[in-house]
Amino acid sequence: MAISPPRNRLWWNEPIERVEIGWIVVAFLWGLFMFFFMIAWHFIGGQNLSTETYRIKPPAYEEKVVAFAEKYQVAEEDGTPVVRPPAGEDVYLLARLWEWWPLLELKKGQSYRIHLSSLDWQHGFSLQPVNINISVHPGYEQIITLTPTQAGEFGIACNEYCGIGHHMMTGRIRVVE
Amino acid sequence: MAAIDAPYPGSAAAAAIFRTCRFTGLKVDIAAQRLIMANAVAAVVFLAVGGVMGLLVALTRWPAVHLLPSEWFYLVLTGHGANVLLFWIIFFEIAILYFASAVLLGSRIATPKIAWAAFVLMLVGAVMTNVAVFQGDSSVMFTSYPPMQASPHFYLGLIIFAVGALIGVGIFFGTLVIAHGEHTYEGSIPLVTFGALTAAIIAVFTLASGAIILIPTYLWSLGLITEIDPLMYKVVWWGMGHSSQQINVAAHVSVWYAIGALTIGAKPLSEKVSRSAFLLYILFLQLASAHHLLADPGMSATWKIVNTSYLMYLAVLGSLIHGLTVPGALEAAQRRNGYTKGAFEWLRKAPWGNPAFAGMFLSLVMFGFIGGISGVVLGTEQLNLLMHNTIYVPGHFHGTVVAGTTLAFMAMTYYVLPLIFQRDVIWPKLARWQPYLFGIGAAGISLFMMGAGTLGIPRRHWDITLTDAMHPFDLPSGGFLMMGLNGLSAVIAAAGGILYIVITVGTVLWGKRLDKGDAPLNFPLHKQAATVAEYGSHTTVKLPGTIILVSIFFLSFVLYYFVNWKYLSEIWLLR
Question: Which value does ipTM take for this structure?
Answer without folding.
Answer: 0.96
